[in-house]
Write a structure and sequence with these properties.
The protein has 125 residues and is of the alpha+beta class. The protein has a single domain, classed as Ribosomal protein S6/Translation elongation factor EF1B (Alpha-Beta Plaits, 2-Layer Sandwich). It contains five helices and four strands. Strands 2-3-1-4 form a four-stranded antiparallel beta sheet, sandwiched between helices. Strand 2 and strand 3 form a beta hairpin. The protein is globular and about 40 Å long.
Length: 125
């Protein structure tokens, strides 16, 4: 099965310390590696307020993982994240080039107003 590149957003419990969060992320990176995937890079977004409470938590720690994987690897990773009580949410998107995606993310962090692209801008609506 061919491997594609993905961006995985992992939102862990906002009450964790930095060290505890590193352990959670490390544990899930290991799951991906053991399943045959490859973690290409990662980027931290940090502790942020989430849009709606999840398990009575109002803050989460956001971490992006850039992966090379296939369907079964992603299914296993998401299944394991679903069992982990410290992971509030996870989202996966397919990407063309992880280096370009990470560069866009870092530009957005540096200057959110200047570098934010609205979907309506892309669609011309």
């Amino acid at each position: 099965m061919s491997m594609k590149q993905y961006e995985l957003l992992l939102v862990s419990d906002g009450g964790l310390t930095e060290e505890e969060n590193k352990q959670v992320v490390s544990r899930h990176k290991e799951v991906i590696s053991k399943a045959g995937g490859k973690v290409l890079d990662e980027a931290a977004w940090g502790r942020r307020k989430i849009a709606y409470p999840i398990n009575k938590k109002s803050h989460g720690i956001y971490q992006f993982l850039y992966l090379e994987a296939n369907g079964p690897i992603l299914e296993e990773a998401l299944r394991q994240m679903g069992y982990d009580e410290l992971v509030l949410k996870s989202f996966v998107t397919i990407i063309k080039d992880y280096q370009e995606e990470k560069k866009e993310f870092e530009a957005l962090l540096a200057d959110p107003q200047k570098n934010a692209t609205l979907t309506t801008d892309i669609l011309g609506a």
